[in-house]
Here is the input.
Amino acid sequence: MAFHKIKIVCAVLMGVSITLLSACSGIVLDQDAGAEPEIIMRYAEVNPSDHIITRTGKYFADCVKEMSDGRIEIEIYDAGKLGNDAQYYEQLRIGALDMYRGNAIALEGISDMEVGVLAMPYLFRDNDHFWKVCDGEIGKEVLADIQESGSKMVGLCFLDEGARNIMTVNAPVKDISDLRGLKIRSMEDDLLCDVIRATGAEPVVMDYADVYSALQSGAVDGAENPVCSYYSNQFYKVAPFYTIDAHTHSPSVILISEITWKHLSEEDKKILYTAAEKAKEFNKAEIEEAEAKAYDKLRKENVKIIQIGDMTKWQDAMGPVYEAYAGNHRLLIDKIRNLR
Here is the structure.
């Protein structure tokens, strides 16, 4: 039986509109049977090249290339070169983008997927609890639900981007009361906006690419990001106060478009799953060191780092968020909380 070699590619170019992207089939037949590689997939990332999550994506791509003997190549487009976070999810769903590293907190806003539960504030006790959930049966169930929910996406594995903390421009946040009335940037997500509101601050939705200039100009008083993102994107230069409140520790997910997925052979799907597991272990081993290095570099830049001691007031403030978002997932939330 003869097979055409195919390249799974996305006709996504910087500045191309979603309308145009929707016309992209995602599949191009390569008539040159001697061409290498056989399959090319585009993988998008919003963070810069030195970010731990971007480096994990590159490690994943290297594993896929090695395991497929060069038949499959994954091209990494970092720093938002192909669009923004919201656009990437839409591109995945229509097959205009092959892969993206998403995050549970943004996925929560797309549909009623179980993965959104993992973005709930103060859900995980610590890093060990985070990985017990993501690596165990709960994690497998939640990953499978991404596709089963009808999202048009397939989740390959969880990654750790780090807990999200508050950065501010003019003054340190030492207590939750210090956030009252401050304008804090949020991604376009109702849950994160309500988490910010629960602290007494005012969420301001904007694209990730606009955060630096908004902090610099005073359009917002602060934002929130994991420490590696805070450092890699140089937000500390315009928001030199960083408060470790860990309001959410939402895992990232390596996602692939279901349209792309269905065009892969079972052998190639197995390669991607295995490479994703390797990438997860790489990420798990690297994230702690990456965060420690980020904090060391931030201290050298004279960033004021505030560690919240007693989190009781912060956790108690999230009651309305759980009332609004727990919905049909209360049993899953209890299961996660009770996991030891």
